[in-house]
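Can't paste images in this forum, so I'm doing it all in text. The chain is below; anyone willing to post the predicted structure tokens underneath?
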Amino acid sequence: MASRSSALVWTGIGLCVAGAVGLVVGGLLDVDAADPWASVAGGAAGLIGLAVTLYALLVPASTAAAVTASGTRSVAAGGSIGSVATGDGASAAPSATPSPVSAPRPVTNGPVAASGERSVAAGGGIGSVSTGDA
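Text version of the structure:
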């Protein structure tokens, strides 16, 4: 299954190809008759392009990626993780940089899995991790 952004890109490419084919055919057949059609097609393509762009920017993408944590004391998150401690008496020190939770980072579209003992996996950034005992 293609991602939403990939589908939007292919929609844009399809509109460009259709517009180019229409201009070539119109130019070969009758330039005077093609002029009003080109104006209408250009306006329609512009409005459709604007609508697709606004949709891509404003509608949040679904987070359908599989997130699993199957190991003992393992942690998995589909987004960013600020601080994690999986050991006995251990604590994860806050990172010197802003927390990934407050500073958004790209999130993976694929599955996120932490399957080993005390493993940590994130679809985004990881700030600080401590997996050993104190």
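The beta strands are 67-69, 75-77, 81-85, 112-114, 120-122, 126-130. The longest helix spans residues 31-58.
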